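Extended Data, panel c. Modelled sequence:
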Amino acid sequence: MKELGLGKWILPQPPDKKEYVRIPKMGRTIPFGYKDDDEEGWLAPIPIELEFLEKAKIFLKQYSMRQVAAWLSTQTGRQISHVGLAKRIKHEQSHKRKASTYRKLTERYEKALKKAEEYEERTGTAQDSGYFHSGKYRDTRESFSRSTIE
C-alpha cells in the first residue's frame, strides 16, 4: 500500500494558566482568592488560591461542603468555612447568570434596532422621524458597540 505523506497535525493547545484580573473592593470582607492591592479600592488575585477554588467546585459534586472547605483550607493555608465557601460559590453563580442575561438582552436589543431601522427604511418614515439619524441613536449605537467589544 502506498504511504501518503500527510505530515503531522498539531492541535492548538490551551493556555497553561488562566489570567486573573483585579476586582473592585465592595465591602469589608475580602473574598477567598484575593488580597488587598497597593492601589486603594482594588483587590489583587492570588492565582494559586483561585486555581484550588476551581478544583474545589469540581470536588463539590462528590463531597460535602464541609469536607471541601477543609481540604481547601489545608491546601492553601488560608481558612475558609463551609458557609464562606457556599457564599462564594453562590455569589459567583449569581454573577454568571446576570452576565448571561445581559448578553442575551444586548443581542435582542441589537436585533430590535435593526428591525426598526429596516421598517422605517421600507415604509419611508425614516426621514419623518429622524430617530436613526439623530445623535441619540448614534450615541446608543456607539455605547452598544463598545460594550460588546469589552
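Residues 98-150 form one domain. This feature is highlighted in the accompanying rendering.
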